[in-house]
Amino acid sequence: MTVGERIKQKRLELNLSQDELARKVGYKSRSSIQKIECARNLPLPKVEKMAIALGCTPSYLMGWEDSEEIKVIHDKLVDAYVLREKQIKLMKIYDNLSPEKKALFESYLMYLQSDF
Predict the structure, then answer these.
(1) pLDDT tens column, 75-94
(2) Straight-line distance from the first to the last Cα atom of the chain, in angstroms, rounded to the nearest whole number
């Protein structure tokens, strides 16, 4: 099975459209995903992002053997990536707040952090 076939298989298992997968990986259109699925290779810089988006390991996409250790490491990387994406989203929201709302937000966070 080629890299493209593995990507398509995982995408279909997850009920993702080519458009949805393209957005998750950072492509602008589904045609990029369509080309990857028809090809035998994937640009190396996209392997990790594609694996995260599809919930599998880079080893699986590349056709290498997965060991349990690799799966554990991959799961930790996925968790860290998801957390980082959430942090970036929150930072962007915070940056766009007015000074008054930033102060209110900070006060609320301090309240939540306290023992009430």
Answers:
(1) 788 888 888 889 999 999 99
(2) 57
Distances, alpha carbon 19 to alpha carbons 22, 24, 30, 38, in Å: 5, 9, 5, 15
Answer yes or no: do 9 and 59 share one domain.
yes
Task: Provide the domain limits for residue 86.
Answer: 67-116
Q: How far apart are CA 54 and CA 42, in angstroms?
A: 14
Residue 101 has pLDDT above 80, yes or no: yes
Instruction: Give the Cα separation of 3 and 37 in Å (integer).
Output: 7
Instruction: Specify whether the CB–CB gap between 22 and 35 falls below 8 A.
Output: no
Whether residues 58 and 82 fall in one domain? no
- For the record, the structure tokens of 50 come out as 């594609």
